[in-house]
Structure prediction request, 230 residues.
Amino acid sequence: MSKRDKKSISVVIVDDHEVVREGLRAMLSRHNDIAVVGEAGTMKGAVVESCRLKPDVVLMDVRLSDGSGVDACRVIRDSCPATRVLFLSSYEDDEAVLAAVFGGASGYLLKQITAEGLMLAIRAVAQGQSILDPAITQPVLTRMRLQNEQALEPQRTTLSVQQQRVLALIAEGKTNKEIGSSLELSDKTVKNYVRFIFQKMKVTRRGQAAAMFIRDSVSVKRSVDYRKDQ
Prediction:
């Protein structure tokens, strides 16, 4: 019986460096629950192969030889809604993360991630979860905690202080259970907070909420820095 017969997670690898694709293929192939079904080195190839194979997950680089992985992600998500896109990149700037998430990606990881971490992320994304590398979100969250909470109030006026705490933990990648433990809330209460936050922010996924949190934090940081310079 083949891997596909066992309902393993099908993956298409997209990177413009052949050696990276080969390395990822070799690593992923060691796991029985993951099947690499295709690969591509260009934006056009990513779209063609993803739409042809309809994998569970596309492991995508941000910068490709003929364009942007984010643009490819948008096309793939529009054409194959069931396919999840997980970015694996060397670039950790906020704009790249935001563009990827708002382009429909389910996650954004840095290539410094461990093999085990990558496996866990692929499995999580295949199950519908959203993943953002803590190495990307943590610096922004740290800056956020050092600033006056009132400076952020205009950004999210409809969220209470407690709801903003929940949102910050969502951005850190915490599960509902971990959020409940940290804030001493029941699972049901956390779920209600999350549902309310999603409704107010007009998002449907944790990754989108986290990206908006980062965007607002960066915006406030720049505003505060600007006022200090005046």
